[in-house]
From TrEMBL:
Entry GO terms, CC: cytosol
Binding, GTP: 60-64, 81, 103-105, 125, 160, 165
Pathway: Cofactor biosynthesis; riboflavin biosynthesis; 5-amino-6-(D-ribitylamino)uracil from GTP: step 1/4
Name of the protein: GTP cyclohydrolase-2
Keywords for this protein: GTP-binding, Hydrolase, Metal-binding, Nucleotide-binding, Riboflavin biosynthesis, Zinc
InterPro entries membership: GTP_cyclohydro_II (IPR032677), RibA (IPR000926), RibA-like_sf (IPR036144)
Catalytic activity: GTP + 4 H2O = 2,5-diamino-6-hydroxy-4-(5-phosphoribosylamino)-pyrimidine + formate + 2 phosphate + 3 H(+)
Cofactor: Zn(2+)
Active-site residues per Swiss-Prot or TrEMBL entry: 137 (proton acceptor), 139 (nucleophile)
Primary role: Catalyzes the conversion of GTP to 2,5-diamino-6-ribosylamino-4(3H)-pyrimidinone 5'-phosphate (DARP), formate and pyrophosphate.
Amino acid sequence: MTQASASPANVPQLDYLTSCALPTPWAQFTLHAFVEHATGKEHLAMVLGDVSNGEPVLARVHSECLTGDVLFSQRCDCGAQLEGALKKIAAEGRGVLLYLRQEGRGIGLVNKMRAYRLQEAGADTVEANLQLGFHADARNYELVQPMLRQFGISELKLMTNNPRKIDALTRLGFNVSERVPLLVNRNSFNNNYLNTKEAKLGHMMRPAETVAEDGEL
Ligand SMILES: Nc1nc2c(ncn2[C@@H]2O[C@H](COP(=O)(O)OP(=O)(O)OP(=O)(O)O)[C@@H](O)[C@H]2O)c(=O)[nH]1
């Protein structure tokens, strides 16, 4: 695998670093690592099957959530979405999951914890970010372009409930030919959070789109 290809000036510069096998409970993926020049952050891609054959690729662009992805937090749906996306890719036998180091919708882990404290005092997830002086969502998805291009991917079946993520990838030149809902693990701890994402961030969270009543995929 060669270095990530040269990008236009407005696309973040990224180096391809290395890869290894990554067995999971559902499939053996190949894990690829990149480093972003501007921040030094290491971003990851989990790839399964032949994704460069021109067929639309089942894809997840996942933002880091240490509390949800690793520490089993029920305050969000992130961990369940990560697991659900990997299971779907394994079931299809082909796909990609980008793991972007955009913790806390881009504000970082400790600021996300500060936002959680404000939420414990009554703010919702958007108000808490604003009270801390951040945008409601500080992420951008420009990194996705050199990462997916590295694997020859241009058409996506994107697993997301976030219409702004679809818009962002479309603006970057990807053809999002299908949206695959990823509605999992609604519970008493994250119910208000998910409702706020629908009301204020435009997420598509209708029950009719829920994959299964018990949260399993
Ligand atoms: N600032 C902040 N970030 C949060 C909070 N809860 C989760 N996150 C972060 O939000 C990001 C995931 O955002 P989501 O809105 O679940 O996912 P999305 O990418 O926008 O949409 P989907 O593709 O549908 O999952 C991760 O970076 C989490 O760390 C919160 O209350 N405040």
